[in-house]
Amino acid sequence: MRASAAGAGSPGRGLSGRIGVPGDKSISHRALMFGALAVGTTEITGLLEGEDVLRTAAAMRALGAEVERVAPGHWRVAGRGVGGLVEPADVLDMGNSGTAARLICGLLAGHPVFAVLTGDASLRGRPMRRVTEPLSACGARFTGRAGGRLPLAVEGAADPLPLDYVLPVPSAQVKSAVLLAGLCARGITRVEEPEATRDHTENMLRHFGAVLRVEAEGHRRVIELEGQPELRAAPVVVPADPSSAAFPLVAALLVPGSRVTVAGVGLNPLRTGLFATLREMGADLVVSGARVEGGESVGDVTASFSELRGVDVPGSRAPSMIDEYPVLAVAAAFARGTTRLRGLGELRVKESDRLAATVALLAACGVAASVEGDDLVIARDGARAPGGGTVVTHMDHRIAMSALVMGLASERPVAVDDTGFIDTSFPGFVGMMNGLAGGAVIAPVDGAASPPGGVP
Ligand code: S3P
Known about the structure:
By secondary structure, the protein is of the alpha/beta class. The protein folds into 2 domains: 6-22 and 239-445, Enolpyruvate transferase domain (UDP-n-acetylglucosamine1-carboxyvinyl-transferase, Chain, Alpha-beta prism); 25-237, UDP-n-acetylglucosamine1-carboxyvinyl-transferase, Chain (Alpha-beta prism). Helices cover 29% and strands 26% of the residues. It is built from 13 helices and 24 strands. The strands form 6 sheets. Strands 22-23-1-24 form a 4-stranded mixed sheet. The protein has a 4-stranded mixed sheet with strand order 2-15-17-16. A 4-stranded mixed sheet has the order 4-5-3-14, covered by helices on one side. A hairpin with a 2-residue loop joins β12 (212-217) and β13 (220-226). α1 packs parallel to α2, α3 (98-109) runs parallel beside α6 (172-183) and α8 runs parallel beside α12. The protein is globular, with a radius of gyration of 21 Å. Residues 26, 99, 171-173, 176, 197-198, 322-323, 346 line the site of shikimate-3-phosphate. It catalyses: 3-phosphoshikimate + phosphoenolpyruvate = 5-O-(1-carboxyvinyl)-3-phosphoshikimate + phosphate.
């Protein structure tokens, strides 16, 4: 087992406290990218300083922006203006981050530069054709490994054409890549999405002064962007990431006697599918102090221990909770009745095959789950999950954190083989959870020793 293996056991009491979690990953990437494309200096506060976002910061520097860390979470970006990015002198290594890699493909497509993108073994296994195919139509050229995978060489277009693209899969990353390329094109770039996905790119385009029209009809959205705007530097306040808040909140729902508040959580309606689902399951989840900060809705979310029941979650909700399914599956393992999570095909191409990794996580903890087509089905009787196993994380931060949440609530402790990737999105996760528990309920294990805790 690697040095970063850890185990989680029952705290033997409820989790309690009021915490802040790190900044939103999606908004943090975009703040750095828009800062690099704007004229003037963008001040960002609350930036997530996780590995994924630090890769984007390094890439923006390599593309000619001045990027400076002023204080923890406070960053300053002096931009180069739309079309002003320069050719990077070396390979851009995007680490574990699909968002960074795909959005940067969009940025590069509109600039007359040559660049090579690579990443870690997880990212090098992920499909990139979903962005390189539409972006090729603007005049950019991409050469990659089989299946269009990284490493990928990009030759951006000198005079990019505006794109008109209907998303074949609901993906904010693909939508954003097309819109970022559209910034450098003359004329109107049009993207149509059959299912609305997170709209942080659209919000930030407006915030930096671009002209954007969005037509909404049910779940469908049509976005039209006027090309070659002058983006002006604008301050960005990054809210706490709802996808990170999910872990302590679900832990509080599952550990008897708990009550945990996460402050300033981003509550963009295209990100709150997990909270809606947990409420349908009977969760005591309360939002207070709802407000708008930096153009995004935020609020303090309090979760208290709850007895949950199984639910049937429609596939149309998937885009609003796409990163939350592993921890939702953990919650379903403690519910009474059958939970059916529909339409999870996209989970197969995340940091790991998350559908398979989630089933394996549950199986390692004594919980049977089945995959029927693209649905995940978990049938339980409301008893605590047995736990007791070791979960393989497959370089996936959210599988690691979900497994540790499972360990806090299950009958027996749970080990994970590698916690190192948690830093991609949630640095400080282990310390924060131990703080809520009032002791070291998550601690390193060397493979021979048992995980901590284990109070029945
Ligand atoms: C993200 C979009 C989602 C999500 C990812 C972040 C973004 O991916 O899974 O963690 O910032 O645009 P897809 O848009 O590919 O579903």
